Amino acid sequence: MALLSTTDFPHLIVKTEGFAHKRIDLHSHTSCSDGGLSPQTLIDRAANFQIDVLAITDHDTVAGLDIAQKHIQDKNIPLKLIDGIEISTAWQGFEIHIVGLNIDKNNLQLTSLIEQQQQAREQRAISMGEKLAKCGFTNIYADAKAMAGDGSITRAHFAKVLHQQGHVSTMQQAFDKYIGKKGSKGQRAYVKPNWCSIEEAIQAIHQAGGSAVMAHPIRYDLSAKWLRRLIVQFSEAAGDALEVVLPQMSPEQRQKMLAYCQEYNLYASMGSDFHYPNKWSDLGRNLTMPVGAKPVWALW
Ligand code: AMP
Ligand code: MN
Ligand code: MN
Ligand code: MN
Fold it and tell me: What range(s) does the Polymerase/histidinol phosphatase N-terminal domain occupy (predicted)?
C-alpha cells in the first residue's frame, strides 16, 4: 500500500478535507509535564520545522496551551495549535494513555478530571519517594517535585533525578530497575497509580468537545489478543481514533493499526510523542498517514 511521508514529500499531501497539504503532528509534550522544552520553545521549534498543525498533549494538564497560543499570537507564527491533553488511565493492570484532541480546555468536567488525576499523580509521587528511600535513595521526591515545578509530576522526573544523582546509568535503567512495571507487581519502587478509567477519560474529552485517541497502541506490550480486547473496549466506550502513526513504528505495525481502524470503524491519528530533541525522532518527522485511513481531523 502506498504511504505518504513527510520525509519523502517535503510538502506532505494528505488526501483529506480540512488540513490538505499540511505538516501535521498531533502528539507532543512541554515542560508543563515531562517535555524538555517550554511551550514557547516547542512552538519555535515547530515553526522552524515548518509544521502547520501541532497538538500539545501534556500528561494530565492543559497548562501549556494558553502559554503556547499567546506566543503564537505575539510572534505572529503561522502555526495552528490544536488544544490537547494525554490522560493516563487504568485498564486491567495496564496504564493506557488516551489523548484528547481539539478540546475545550476550560470545560468543567475535564477540569475536574484533571484535578483528580493531579491528586493521583501527587500521591503516587510521594509513595514512590518513600519506596525509593527504602532502596537507599533519599530526597528523590523533593528533587523530582522541584524539577516538575508547577507542572505535572511524572515518573520521567524521577528517572531524571535518579540518573542525575548517579543511581542509574540511564533514565531507562531507572524504569527497568526501580519505577517501571514489568511483570505483575512491578519493580521495587513501582507504585500502582490511581488513574481514572478509559470510559471516564473518553467521556470528559467528549464533554469538552474533543476527539478521544488511543495513544501509541503498540507500546503497551500487549499480546494480539489483549490489544484487540483493549481496542474493542475503547471502541465500545465511544473512543474515536487510534494513533496509527508514530515515528518508531514499522510499516507492518502501521498496517496492523490501520486494519484495526478499518475493522472497528475508528479514525486515525499521527504524532511524534515529542519530549525533547534526540537522534531518533523529532517534531513532525517521519510521520506517514496510510492511504485509506480516515484522519481524525476529518471530525473537526
Ligand atoms: P507517568 O505518566 O508518571 O507514568 O510517567 C511516564 C512517562 O515516563 C512517560 O510518558 C514517558 O515519557 C516516560 N518514560 C520513559 N521511559 C519509560 C518507560 N520505560 N516506561 C514508562 N514510561 C517511560
Ligand atoms: Mn511522557
Ligand atoms: Mn503516552
Ligand atoms: Mn505522550
Answer: 24-91
Range 121-186 has CATH code 1.10.620.20: no
Distance 76 CA to ligand 3 centre (A): 30
Question: What does the alpha-carbon distance between residue 88 and residue 151 come to, in Å, rounded to a whole number?
Answer: 15
Q: At what angle do helices 63-75 and 39-48 cross, to 10 degrees?
A: 50
270 lines ligand 1 (CB under 6 A): no
Is this model's pTM higher than 0.90 or not? yes
190-237 tens-digit pLDDT: 999 999 999 999 999 999 999 999 999 999 999 999 999 999 999 999
Every domain of the chain and the residues it spans: 24-114+194-298, 121-186
Does 3.20.20.140 match the CATH number of domain 24-114+194-298?
Answer: yes
Tell me which residue has cell 466506550. Answer: 237
